[in-house]
Amino acid sequence: MPNPSSHENLPIYQKAILIYQLIESLITSIPENDDYLQHTKELIRVDAMIIPAKIAGAEGGDFYSIRMQNAAIIREHAMHL
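Now predict its structure.
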């Protein structure tokens, strides 16, 4: 069984966390009086949050099919960003 924190040492996971932090700081500069921008802000936040979670899931999954499914989800959300 893999070490639960083994994914935290992966460079791609660390980069995903860095991107999430960057998105969070960018979102704070978006004005709050525009409904469209507020909706877009939430979509961006969700995309940035899912990527590190799926990287951790792919690293923890021992089956090829689980890893590939997570990779497809990661790719989709990265393309949205």
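The first helix runs from residue 11 to 27.
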